[in-house]
Amino acid sequence: MIGPEQQVAAGGPAERRSGPGRWGRAAFDVAFGILFPLACFLLDPFLFRGWFMGAPPRLMHYKLLAYGGAGLGMLSLALWLAVGQRSGRWSALSFGGMAAAAFIAAGLGVILLPLTIMGLVAGIGVLGFVPFVTAYVYLHNATQANRSALCRRPPKATAPWALAGAFAVLGVPALAQWRTNAVVRDSIQSVIDGDVHEQRAIDRLKWAHTWGLANVDPIVNAYAREEKPARKDELARAYTAITGGDIEVRRREMD
Q: Per-residue pLDDT for 7 more than 60?
């Protein structure tokens, strides 16, 4: 049986002391693991939301993966800080979820790095380092959660829970993103081709565009290439039905 001293040595629950030190660490984790990432998503001008200088968000096709993974990662962190230390299974589940969230945060940091370096000249690039700090927070807590889980259960018992946590945070959003991208791509092609499923495709694209999950500029490109006036009118009506905008205005913006 593992005693309190052994748990401290192994980094288990007893290591998470009470007092100012623990609460200060928890405040840091909540700030950089939850609050600052949320603020960055809300203020994002061009990565996942917002159209910067007429261009669609650069990572629009990864929005579900980033938002879903980040949200579930935050949930894993909150679960660990609240009740994770009390159960080997919850610790293992939190470990897998936070490890996957650390991977997502680090990936975003790497993608942003060139812009971060350029932004340092303007004095705002420091915000681009937030994902790396977030990745550290998740990785640190994931390590603690793994140690806590192994204090209570053998690796064979905790591994399935850890894998389940990782799949929930990374696998489920990735599958949702893949499926959404496929539906959007096929729907755009249906509208361009004017096939029998065009109206269904328009309805799907309208929903996806509303949530910032679809870039329908290929329809504008098809409109610009089309020579038949009747077909151009059909594409223009489809574009308006999807976005509520004027296809000619968008065409001029893209020129």
A: no
